[in-house]
Amino acid sequence: MTESFRKSVNKELEALRTEGRLRVLPETGKRSKASIESGGRCLLNLSSNDYLGIGDEEQLRSEYLLAFNPENNGDRFCMTSSSSRLLTGNHRLYGELEERLAAWYGREAALVFNSGYHANTGILPALSTRHDLILCDKLSHASIIDGCRIADAAFKRYRHLDYSHLEELLDGAHAKYRQVFIVTESVFSMDGDLADLQKLCELRQRYGAFLIVDEAHGAGTFGSEGKGLCEETGLTGSIDIIVGTFGKAFASAGAYGVMDGMIRDYLVNTMRPLIFTTALPPVILGWSMQVLEHQRTMGEKRCNLHFLAGRLRKALEKKGMQTAGESQIVPVIMGGNQKTVRASAVLQKAGFLALPVRPPTVPENTARIRFSLRADIGWEDICGIPEILHQVSENGEQAGNNNVAVQQINSFQ
Ligand SMILES: Cc1ncc(COP(=O)(O)O)c(C=O)c1O
């Protein structure tokens, strides 16, 4: 390492520290149902993506452990696949899981990936060439943006949920390119708002575009069977690739895409994050399959989740707080970074783990507390939150005695 490189890295770290934006990896401890140990205390975890609250569900877990009986399902015990899917890592559970996913969505084929990040950084670079154009919602997740950047295609962002802007871009461009790809999230992770899938499918149809919808925060939480916003809007058959993740409402790890068989064959041959990585361990594939099987029976959990989100939004608005969205992700936009960190610290003192999200993850002056609600709690568990935030807004200094908590919150982001 040269001295000048060492100095420039150090300088950047110092700058992040001074601006209060230095990220460190926070240690969390024991989890039990909806609570998590953090900073030596047990807090209600409102910052995880386990939206259905099944990560710690006793019955589901024991069922899986029972199915682990080495005499019948011994190979599910396997903790590693030890190689890529294209070598010896393609355990039969991959095939079973993909068949079930395709049948569930009523589509020709499915493909399982190591994570949503692998899916989003692999699909577009594999499908598109320099003769193509990618149009992406401006507030799409970093993994989608990274995929657009890696791809050889031209890449433009349309204003968030502004489909007239998207139409303008399509009008000017679709004849110049071999293929135009449109990519969006269904439930946006920072604002909890929803894409208009109906409109996107109309544009796909009119311009012959290839539509990719990331349901990372919609799968498991929307649709009567939990397939996502595409199910709720009756559009599972009209989207070229629906991406879902297993690490959020499915309480497992990995991701999937459902698509036509030809596209699946092409991705198997071209998608680098599928080809050049060690496959998921069978123990995870089996667990994902088990959770998938139970999705149909989780309608009540989804109802409770949306009931809580609606009630929390209303109660926050009644207290004059600014919120947004229409999903289980409820942001409270506080504005300044310091104020948001203090609000999070006060919440922590009151027993809630709800972390602040600050720029550059969200636009300047829109720092927020992001509540990720979960189905395994009741209104009585969270009804105190609007008043706490109202107090912080009214009287910022009230939080002045929370230095320890502020330090802990800073260690989270
Ligand atoms: C919209 C979206 N897509 C993809 C991902 C990445 O998924 P994974 O955590 O499985 O890598 C995330 C993660 O937060 C996300 O919010």
Outline the structure in words.
- The protein has helices at 3-18, 58-66, 70-73, 92-105, 116-127, 142-150, 163-173, 197-207, 229-232, 261-270, 272-275, 282-294, 299-318, 337-349, 379-382, 385-394, 403-410; strands at residues 31-32, 35-38, 41-45, 109-113, 133-137, 154-158, 180-185, 210-214, 241-245, 255-259, 322-323, 329-335, 352-353, 356-357, 367-372.
- By secondary structure, the protein is an alpha/beta fold.
- It has two domains: 25-54 and 298-410, Alpha-Beta Complex (Aspartate Aminotransferase, domain 1), CATH 3.90.1150; 82-280, Type I PLP-dependent aspartate aminotransferase-like (Major domain) (Aspartate Aminotransferase, domain 2, 3-Layer(aba) Sandwich).
- The strands form three sheets. A seven-stranded mixed beta sheet has the order 4-10-9-8-7-5-6, with helices on both faces.
- Helix 13 runs parallel beside helix 16 (385-394).
- Residues 397-401 have low confidence and may be disordered.
- Bound molecules: pyridoxal-5'-phosphate.
Brief digest:
The protein is an alpha/beta fold and 413 residues long. The protein has 17 helices and 15 strands.
Give the topology, please:
Layout: H1 3-18, E1 31-32, E2 35-38, E3 41-45, H2 58-66, H3 70-73, H4 92-105, E4 109-113, H5 116-127, E5 133-137, H6 142-150, E6 154-158, H7 163-173, E7 180-185, H8 197-207, E8 210-214, H9 229-232, E9 241-245, E10 255-259, H10 261-270, H11 272-275, H12 282-294, H13 299-318, E11 322-323, E12 329-335, H14 337-349, E13 352-353, E14 356-357, E15 367-372, H15 379-382, H16 385-394, H17 403-410
Parallel strand pairs: 3-13, 5-6, 5-7, 7-8, 8-9
Antiparallel strand pairs: 1-2, 2-3, 4-10, 9-10, 11-12, 12-15, 14-15
Helix pairs in contact: 4-12, 5-6, 7-8, 13-16, 14-16, 14-17
The site of pyridoxal-5'-phosphate has 13 residues, from helix 5.
